[in-house]
Structures are given as structure tokens and as C-alpha cells.
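tool=predict chain=A
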Amino acid sequence: MNNLGCVQKKLPCLFQVQVLDAPSDKRHSQPYKVIATPDFEEEAFKHDIHSARLSEKLDGTCVYVAKFLGKPWLWARLDRRPNKATERRLKKFLADHRTLQRHGEKSETEAEFQWDLPKDLKEVPATWIPALAVPVVDDIPQPDTCGHIPGWVPVDRTSRQHCWHLGAVDLDNSLGLVMREDDCYHGDLIIEARPLEELEGHTAELIGTHINGNPYGIGNKQCPIHLLVIHGIMGIMNAPRSKPPCY
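tool=predict ok
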């Protein structure tokens, strides 16, 4: 499993995106929407997309397997975010920037949001750690363009917030319930208990009955099921990788 992915930052879209001056289909209060066009980003070709192993992006919540108190442990995603006053200031800054984009205008100099770190950020638990790909300046993790710092907290056995995470692991015996493709019969799926030690250093998608509206129809309220799917393990066969005609 060493060649599989470890997602430690927000992944950019492979396709060029376009901001439309129309109400969002997902957020009723949002006066614009962002769509992906059929054209690949030029950056995708710089990273040799033709030889890349493409995998499915599952709709769950991101988790991380790493040591905690000397044991292999499951960590839940927790982004550190701006406090309310800073969030209002950042939203105005981003809205003004999007308005310029929609009208095809550019400022003479690309403005940058001014942070006062860490004062501009909400508090996080003492056990919180930033994701590995987060840039650090003077020992202070830096927010991304949306104002978030991706990070992790160890799953807490006593937290209701982590009850569905705990359904996919046995922390006493350091086991995780993992779904993967069958190595011999592609397309078939296998669910098995794996030692968390084998999964250390990997990120995974937690999916199941009570995660993100359960788009995969796994389990039910009477018998909830939650599984870990290691990022990169669900390969996509025969995906198109040709360069768009516009290039």
C-alpha cells in the first residue's frame, strides 16, 4: 500500500473552472456558481497525467492514520478557520476579487489578504496538528486562499462528534474496517479488518450510513455501517487523458 495517496491538502481540480454570474444550485444565498469546464488545467500535464494512476474521489469525510500516545490511531479532519470578525473581512475580500474575475478585470497588483496570525484564527484542541502539506512560516501554519488550515485531531472515544469514526475502527485492538478492490477480480469489492499499523501514514475516506447523506446506500439506521477507503485504492480504468483540442 506504500504507493497509495496521502491527501494532506485540498486537491485542485484537474479541469479549468469558470465562475458564472448566476445563483448557486447548492447554496441558496450564494449569487454565483463555480463549474468545471471540459478543458484540463495545463498544470495537470506538467505532472505527467498520462502515466498517473487515476482513482475515484469518494464522497465521505477525510481521515488520517498516524500514531497517538504511542499507538496507531485514527485522526479526524478538523480545519482551523478564521474567527468571526476575520471571516467577515475575508468574505468581503474574496467577493470583491470574484467580482473582478466575473467582469474580466484585473487589479494592477494582485492584492493579498492581510492576516494577523494566530490572532485571526479560532482556537483548536491542544491535540490538533496541521496537515503535512500546510506551509509554516516562523512556526505558524499558514491559511490557504479560503482562510482554512487543514489539520487533524485524534478520534476521541468520548466525543459524540466522532461516534461514526469509531464505528470503523477498534482502537483497543488497533484494527480498521477497510473496503478495497479485489486484486484478482477488478470491480469486485472486499471488506476486511486491517491492522491500523499497516495503514499508518495514509489518509482515507470514511464513508457509510451517517456520513454525507450516505450516497452509496451503505447500511441503515437500524444497522449502521462505516468503512475506511484508503485514498488511491479505487482505480479508474480507461479514463480519458488526451490533451484538449484547444491547446
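Residues 84-102 form the longest helix (19 residues). The chain has a mean pLDDT of 85.
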